[in-house]
Prior knowledge:
Blueprint: H1 3-31, E1 32-37, H2 48-61, E2 65-69, H3 70-73, H4 80-89, E3 93-103, H5 110-126, E4 130-137, H6 147-163, E5 167-171, H7 183-190, E6 196-201, H8 212-219, E7 223-228, E8 230-233, E9 239-242, H9 251-259, E10 265-269, H10 282-297
Parallel strand pairs: 1-2, 1-10, 2-3, 3-4, 4-5, 5-6, 6-7, 7-10
Antiparallel strand pairs: 8-9
Amino acid sequence: MDRRHFLQQLSGGAALLSASRVLSGASAKQRIHVGAQTNTWGAPIKTYDHLREVLDALVKLGYEGFETSEQSLDKQAGMAKQCRAAFESRHIEYVAPHCSLRFATSVGIPAQVEALKKTAGYSAEMGAKHLIASGGYARNESDVMPVEQKAELLNQVGKVCQQEGLQFCYHNHTKEFEGDHPEMETLIAQTDPKVVWLNYDVGNAYPIGPKPGDFSAKHYRRILIYHIKDVKQDSNGKQVATDLGEGKIDLRAVVAPLLKSDWKGWLVVEREAGYPNAAEHPEELLRQCRGYIRRIAGV
């Protein structure tokens, strides 16, 4: 091979390598999206006008989507199409309403399923692709649902969400990770992966559950939405929220399996400071979070 042909092949190989790197980076940005929970401004957002102001701020900060309490938008149910147009005009995606379930036998399953079906219907019309719900536990132990019944409730909610065109994600709290045989293991095993996914809150699972990075590596195929946050202990030993990268959670380990795979979903920042009240400087907090995710995940 003469020198000219050698240099041509070398140049072509370098160009191909460069192109593959560009495509790889573009792929990650297409797969992994970054959103924010609006509760940094308080939960719920009390007026629709304020919510639109919050969305304008999130877009300027570089967020692609938002999650909000169902109570932030339930009064707009009759104006779902107008809401969708407002979100689309701002180039921000409605990731999900965040709803609540009651793990209490006195509340029952049918009424809760019906209520969430209604929320799923108008949320889908607003442009949401998911519905998130977290479980509230009864104070009276005799009123707490057995874990098998909780799994059945989640399955039924998942089915009605699917009927409305949404993917249902269950949001964990600390309770599901307590004990030698944590409920989370049973809920994962006894819910249908075709209709029930996870909204894994890394802060709520720490430090009781497995290391967030380990849980992510094991279950990321079941997780559609991550709640990204960091925590530390204050002078009284209480766990409190802090800037991403300044606390105890290894967030690089959490996102590692997502970057090494073809995972598609949302990293949603939940930066709380005084919840349910608004943080003093919400935009400053979320600017730090957005920059940190960009550094560790490249998106």
